[in-house]
Amino acid sequence: MTTHAPQAAHTVTLPGTLDEAVAALAAMPAAVPVAGGTDLMAAVNSGLLRPAALVGLGRISEIRGWRYLDGHALLGAGLTHARMGRPDFAALIPALAAAARAAGPPQIRNAGTLGGNIVTAAPTGDALPVLAALEATVIIAGPEGARREIPVSHLLAGVDLLNPGELVGFVRVPLLHAPQTFLKATGRTGPGRSTASVALVLDPARRGVRCAVGAVAPMPLRPLEAERWVASLIDWDGDRGHLDPQVTTAFGEYVAAACIPDPPPPQDGGEPIPLPPAAIHLRRTVAALARRALGRALA
């Protein structure tokens, strides 16, 4: 979604399959793919984007559902937030369903898609910290039926990017069958953009805790040291919920400090620079979210 042209889109193609969509993009290099359009149309309406052509993905049925595959769920990139928020999906991947239900008002949830959340990569995308915590991967469709798979985190960090003519077709998510949760804070009551969000999942098979913090940086952040520390204190063979409240509090502070660190000390040896009040408030918010997320997952 980086194509700029002086005129508005005058060609709209509506392919019926993923490979047809890839072929359409190859035939029109200046075209922009669109699914729900919640972010793209905002950019068009604000004058930031003037695509010369659009490739609509709404008729591609193969990317609008999900199926099981080798202990994973293969999610179509066209799944809407509203669909992911339903009880049957929540039983499959609870944290992603919670993020989908929190994505915004009904008109946004009905239109916005999982693939759009990933490709737009807005820092406030609610699905992104969940996918990072689950260590999900994306399956990318390319010309002539080519498929390649990369970690979601690589795409969000710019380590691996979409090539011309490629589309995100599916998202592979491991089914952990273990507690997981998603929490977010907004600047107002009710649905809204995150000021901070936390996704946390337990992985009993690997005796691990995975946590990702969203909205405080350009991409979700993984506080790896905090994850390892708290995982070492959980009784994986007994009562996981029997954890000292001081531990959950310390975990929240550990996560917050890792994601919103103190400024580096001055090179001249002067007085340390304090965090600005807004950063202190954000750190407290992240600490509270991480503490509550761990508590809910262990309950």
From TrEMBL:
Domain FAD-binding PCMH-type: 4-178
Signal peptide: none
UniProt key word Isomerase: no
Assigned keywords, A-Z: FAD, Flavoprotein, Oxidoreductase
InterPro entries hit by this protein: CO_DH_flav_C_dom_sf, Diverse_Substr_Oxidored, FAD-bd_PCMH, FAD-bd_PCMH-like_sf, FAD-bd_PCMH_sub1, FAD-bd_PCMH_sub2, Mopterin_DH_FAD-bd
One Pfam assignment: FAD_binding_5
Keyword Signal in record: no
Protein name (record): FAD binding domain-containing protein
Lineage: Bacteria, Bacillati, Actinomycetota, Actinomycetes, Kitasatosporales
